[in-house]
């Protein structure tokens, strides 16, 4: 029985990972979105726009945006008139999102500190569950998926936007070199923190490949699962339905 989990390229005790991941996101919270722009040359905005188009939030729907701290996904979905609960395990990330919402004059979002593996919400309450660039940071992915399934209504939909491994020849090697060597330097220059961004890159490498993660979504109970690779799989939109 494996009693360790991945923290980047390290294997650590499960009880240690949550604290270390929490420290990473507390360190980068204030510069998180600036760094996303720098690391992806702004492309993360296009990925998130596409993701929300796939979710297709509707007026009056109840949607849980998990690991949504800074509000990037919630702000996009709120425009459609859905009722959004933004949850994150990290209060520093939530605080940034609340400040951004105030700056935008958005007061319709609910902000709730939650552990994706142990949600405090009752069964079958949400029409959709979204998580963008967050599920690879939970300690037990299977528990987070089980909780997503539990809180969704029958007919509810699950959507996950996450980094994966691009299958484009040439680009994969170039991206690996860029991410491992340049991203930590960018993190040092912009956020004053190379180690946190080194972890974030390493966590991508340790995340299950697209077919394996789709299998995990099915094993959690979801049907009609689908994977939509972006840029050859550098990023992927995973989806499934609770039926």
UniProtKB/TrEMBL annotation:
Role according to the record: Methyltransferase required for the conversion of demethylmenaquinol (DMKH2) to menaquinol (MKH2) and the conversion of 2-polyprenyl-6-methoxy-1,4-benzoquinol (DDMQH2) to 2-polyprenyl-3-methyl-6-methoxy-1,4-benzoquinol (DMQH2).
Catalytic EC class: transferase
Binding annotation for S-adenosyl-L-methionine: 70, 88, 115-116
Family of the protein in this entry: Belongs to the class I-like SAM-binding methyltransferase superfamily. MenG/UbiE family.
GO molecular function: methyltransferase activity
SUPFAM superfamilies: S-adenosyl-L-methionine-dependent methyltransferases
Record bears the keyword S-adenosyl-L-methionine: yes
Listed CDD domains: AdoMet_MTases (cd02440)
Protein name, entry field: Ubiquinone/menaquinone biosynthesis C-methyltransferase UbiE
Transmembrane intervals: none
HAMAP family named among the record's database cross-references: MenG_UbiE_methyltr
Enzyme Commission number: 2.1.1.163, 2.1.1.201
Keywords assigned: Menaquinone biosynthesis, Methyltransferase, S-adenosyl-L-methionine, Transferase, Ubiquinone biosynthesis
PANTHER family reported in the protein's UniProt record: 2-METHOXY-6-POLYPRENYL-1,4-BENZOQUINOL METHYLASE, MITOCHONDRIAL, METHYLTRANSFERASE
Organism whose genome encodes this protein: Novosphingobium mangrovi
Pathway: Cofactor biosynthesis; ubiquinone biosynthesis; Quinol/quinone metabolism; menaquinone biosynthesis; menaquinol from 1,4-dihydroxy-2-naphthoate: step 2/2
Origin: domain of life: Bacteria
